[in-house]
Amino acid sequence: xxxxxxxxxxxxxxxxxxxxxxxxxxxxxxxxxxxxxxxxxxxxxxxxxxxxxxxxxxxxxxxxxxxxxxxxxxxxxxxxxxxxxxxxxxxxxxxxxxxxxxxxxxxxxxxxxxxxxxxxxxxxxxxxxxxxxxxxxxxxxxxxxxxxxxxxxxxxxxxxxxxxxxxxxxxxxxxxxxxxxxxxxxxxxxxxxxxxxxxxxxxxxxxxxxxxxxxxxxxxxxxxxxxxxxxxxxxxxxxxxxxxxxxxxxxxxxxxxxxxxx
Length: 262
Fold this sequence. Notes:
- By secondary structure, the chain is an alpha+beta fold.
- The chain has 9 helices and 10 strands.
- It has helices at residues 2-23, 40-54, 75-81, 99-106, 116-120, 122-129, 157-160, 207-224, 228-258; strands spanning 60-64, 92-93, 132-134, 142-144, 161-165, 175-177, 183-185, 187-192, 197-198, 204-205.
- Pfam families: Cytochrom_C1.
- Keywords: Heme, Iron, Membrane, Metal-binding, Signal, Transmembrane, Transmembrane helix.
């Protein structure tokens, strides 16, 4: 019995840091993104970005188009603006690109994104979508500060602009430490996009692009569990019932049973 308790305790100690790593995408120092699943405008914009830019290559086989009605979209709006791979609003979100073609062009089939936010964490995705830079050494011409050697090209380069890595005299990337002490390539801006702008001193403001990516990540978090807000509401109702009804009832029932003893 004693050995069993020790085994359970050891397993618990191992599970805690592992759970924390999964929740943060395996990295504790990513900039935190503000996720608000009650912000329907953000979710609708994120769904539009996802279907326009992500669904070309990635599927979301656990998500049906008609679930977007839960974030305030009508069936007509979904059909007119968000459905490019099917005509049936009850179908799941399937990528426009054939997986065989994707494997040939990208080296591997793009992963399904239904649960990507639950797997990697919102902060990881927010950093990843802001971390692309031009890299001529890569087959697709792009690399990423969060996932080095990523085979995915930058789908939102027109919105963000183009970052490039600074090279030293030997043609090797110049590496610097970021604000968290992590080694990362030193980047400079080649051009700015639709959602970023360059000041006269060369500094680039990305607030618009950051908000753009935040809406996308907000939607990805929603897509991982569309019923999350409903589950929370039910949980609050159950707790309210337990404390407001069952607890007083149990208390007075206990007093009634034990009144003769006391």
